[in-house]
Amino acid sequence: MHKIIVLDRDGVINEDSDAFIKSAEEWIPVEGSMEAIRALKQAGWTVAIATNQSGIKRGYYDRATLSSMHQKMNDLLEDCKPDWISYSPYLSGDNSPSRKPQTGMMQAIEKALNVDLKGAPFVGDTLADIQAARSMSMQPYLVRSGKGERTLATQDPMLQGVEVFDNLQALVEYLLAHGA
User: Fold this and answer.
1) What is the spatial distance between Cα 142 and Cα 180, in angstroms, rounded to a whole number?
2) Residue of 10, 16, 125, 129 marked catalytic
3) Nearest CA to 175 among 124, 137, 123?
4) Does the annotation mark 8 as catalytic?
5) Is the pLDDT of residue 1 over 70?
6) Domain range spanning residue 77?
7) Is Membrane there in the keyword field (predicted)?
8) Considering the entire predicted model, what is its pTM?
9) Does the N terminus or the C terminus of the chain have fewer Cβ atoms within 10 A?
10) Is 18 noted as a catalytic residue in this protein?
């Protein structure tokens, strides 16, 4: 069976900020996240990223800057880079089908990688991530890093049955140890 995982970016892979991550210099990995992605790739997993990046539409940074952030991540991962990165530059008020909680980015991942995401893990730190995962019949996981603690504090019914981990590294160790 082909194993694929979809990761949110801000708060899962890199530190998040309510003021947005606006440059490669501000893009700082969450502790253990680079090791987690490397471990997934070395175990034969396909790794995709689905990230809302409304900072583009807000004028905080441009697509070239976003690309430099992703290049920094890829440089840190060396030969274990993600297989695909989808991003949505839109604001929530734009009602774009690509912006989480909508499923356009996951559909793009399915098309680009010729995979079915049904049942695949989706790792996020917000309700939008959980909602997008559920809409695609994926297995949602929540991390406490990023906005995860804030998300848990909502006690939203959507979190019912969602497994929670401290960070991406803790989740990946769990998945790999349990043969997921």
Assistant:
1) 16
2) 10
3) 123
4) yes
5) no
6) 4-177
7) no
8) 0.97
9) N
10) no
